[in-house]
Design brief:
By secondary structure, the chain is α/β, with parallel strands linked by helices. The chain contains 6 helices and 14 strands. The protein has a 6-stranded mixed beta sheet with strand order 1-4-3-2-5-9. Strands 12-11-10-13-14 form a 5-stranded mixed beta sheet, sandwiched between helices. Strands 6-8-7 form a 3-stranded antiparallel beta sheet. It starts with a strand and ends in a 29-residue tail after the last strand.
């Protein structure tokens, strides 16, 4: 289901914010006004955008935030990171000739090095040369922060079509982050139980956080079997509703993407 509010006006485009989540299967678009009211939501196949989507993407948005897949993600504690070593880290990337990106996750005191998917980056950078590309792993960790206690295990799962990002905190310490291909709830169980085994977790974790574009009920039920408490992560600053039709999209976790700029 797509949505466009009656209050969406082309002559205000320069004041609107466009949030994009893109991969090789589906693209999702959100348009917000200066009052954080949701004006547009679109979800379409990446290789077959609708005429309506093409028209929207041709508009001269000034504030654009884009999430695309990242590769070769490496976390380095701040006390071990030195900028002089960046060339050495570049050599260990899967494609050393491709540009390497870097971001700081302050509350964890770590630097993250990674590469954006080169084809998707080229596509969206061509459409919006001034767009801000935000690594979604940073959004996931920032959104998890309020739910991380100083004692106990917290597992995070972020679903995205046929994959899932899984991360782990133990006693407030960041321990693990990786992306896995997930085709069924059995795949989900397999990868989570492997994380449990690696970190010596017996039985259930204290808490599981989850978010995603579309999360099947069977996956949520599987998470409930692996945790004492399951919490869905939604936007810390939800969009405002202009009508009943938009309410389905107001709290989506991706609406927080601009806070990680």
């Amino acid at each position: 289901m797509n949505y466009t509010a009656k209050q969406f006006h082309l002559h205000y485009i320069s004041h609107y914010t466009l949030i994009v989540k893109a991969n090789y299967q589906y693209d999702k678009l959100y348009v917000l006004d200066q009052e954080n009211q949701l004006l547009v939501y679109m979800n379409f196949e990446s290789h077959n955008p609708s005429e309506e989507a093409l028209k929207l993407l041709s508009l001269p948005f000034q504030n654009v935030y884009v999430s695309i897949p990242t590769h070769n993600l490496t976390f380095i504690p701040n006390d071990l990171f030195q900028e002089i070593d960046l060339d050495k880290y570049q050599e260990f990337m899967e494609n050393p000739s491709q540009a390497m990106s870097r971001t700081t996750i302050d509350f964890l005191n770590i630097e993250a090095l990674f590469q954006f998917d080169v084809l998707l980056y080229h596509r969206w950078n061509t459409l919006f040369p001034d767009a801000k590309f935000v690594p979604e792993f940073k959004l996931n960790l920032v959104q998890a922060r309020p739910y991380i206690p100083l004692k106990g295990e917290v597992l995070g799962v972020v679903f995205d079509d046929n994959s899932a990002d899984i991360y782990l905190f133990i006693n407030g310490q960041f321990k693990f982050y990786n992306t896995f291909e997930i085709a069924s709830d059995d795949d989900l169980s397999y990868f989570i139980l492997n994380v449990f085994e690696t970190f010596g977790i017996q039985g259930k974790v204290n808490k599981i956080l989850f978010s995603g574009t579309i999360v099947d009920d069977s996956l949520v039920e599987k998470l409930k079997n692996l945790s004492k408490e399951v919490i869905e992560i939604t936007a810390s600053r939800p969009a405002q509703s202009l009508d009943d039709e938009s309410k389905t999209f107001l709290a989506h976790y991706l609406l927080d993407l601009p806070i990680c700029e």
